[in-house]
């Protein structure tokens, strides 16, 4: 029956992105009574899940980006022999269990996963695309909440928003006294999770002396640049370039 495993030999090239999306998270958010359009507890659980994917999943991403219920993992070196089935199943399974734990859910939650092969120079463009989606979600989320607060049903509110341009959504929110440009940066631009090098005190058992050593640590960054700008691309390149070898975690 081994020959029936027809997808087991499917592999991807490197680098690539694993993009995870929460499945039916709107039901979970409703049942948990999370705040709309953004809930700090939900955001924290997503950020912690993303950090866990960097540190403990075995996927060894170089960089991760998250907004709403979506996570993108950038993987620059071969892992799991680049087997598509292994990559998507491990990523989705790990993210599902990690988020269920971090969110304190009473029942299992799940993510789906897809692979996006790309060249390294395409990463800023990919992230700019996802960041633009984060901004669109941000505008829609606030506008929808403001309309439903007036007594409109969720369905009617969405119908009013369908087809609206970004400038119109911005003006609608402003008419309710909300300046979307002044909301928290993590809501507007998403959140990055990456490794940084920090210098700390260590101990040399051979010389019995205290020494300064480099350690890798996971950083959750809520204040991102615009990836579509040259400055944003340079910011990204600097953080992906953090060496992984010969440095203890």
TrEMBL record:
Its EC number is 2.7.7.79. Residues 123-201 form the Thg1 C-terminal domain. InterPro entries: Thg1_C_dom, tRNAHis_GuaTrfase_cat, tRNAHis_GuaTrfase_Thg1, tRNAHis_GuaTrfase_Thg1_sf. Its cofactor is Mg(2+). Keywords: GTP-binding, Magnesium, Metal-binding, Nucleotide-binding, Nucleotidyltransferase, Transferase, tRNA processing. It comes from the Archaea. The keyword Chaperone does not apply. GO terms for biological process: tRNA modification. GO terms for molecular function: GTP binding; magnesium ion binding; tRNA guanylyltransferase activity. Residues 1-118 form the tRNAHis guanylyltransferase catalytic domain. Belongs to the tRNA(His) guanylyltransferase family. This is tRNA(His) guanylyltransferase.
């Amino acid at each position: 029956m081994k020959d029936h495993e027809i997808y087991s030999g499917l592999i991807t090239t490197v680098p690539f992105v694993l993009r995870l999306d929460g499945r039916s998270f709107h039901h979970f958010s409703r049942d948990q009574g999370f705040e709309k359009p953004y809930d700090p507890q939900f955001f924290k659980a997503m950020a912690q899940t993303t950090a866990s994917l960097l540190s403990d999943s075995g996927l060894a991403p170089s960089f991760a980006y998250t907004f709403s219920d979506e996570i993108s993992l950038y993987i620059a070196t071969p892992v799991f022999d680049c087997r598509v089935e292994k990559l998507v199943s491990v990523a989705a399974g790990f993210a599902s269990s990690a988020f269920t734990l971090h969110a304190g859910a009473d029942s299992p939650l799940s993510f789906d996963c897809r692979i996006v092969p790309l060249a390294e120079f395409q990463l800023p463009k990919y992230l700019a695309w996802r960041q633009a989606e984060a901004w669109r979600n941000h505008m829609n989320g606030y506008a929808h909440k403001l309309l439903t607060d007036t007594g409109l049903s969720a369905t009617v509110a969405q119908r009013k928003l369908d087809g609206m341009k970004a400038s119109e959504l911005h003006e609608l929110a402003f008419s309710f006294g909300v300046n979307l440009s002044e909301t928290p940066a993590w809501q507007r631009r998403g959140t990055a999770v990456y490794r940084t090098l920090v210098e700390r005190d260590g101990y040399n058992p051979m010389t019995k002396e205290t020494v300064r050593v480099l350690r890798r640590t996971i950083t959750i960054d809520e204040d991102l640049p615009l990836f579509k700008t040259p400055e944003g691309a340079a910011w990204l390149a600097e953080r992906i370039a953090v060496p992984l070898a010969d440095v203890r975690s």
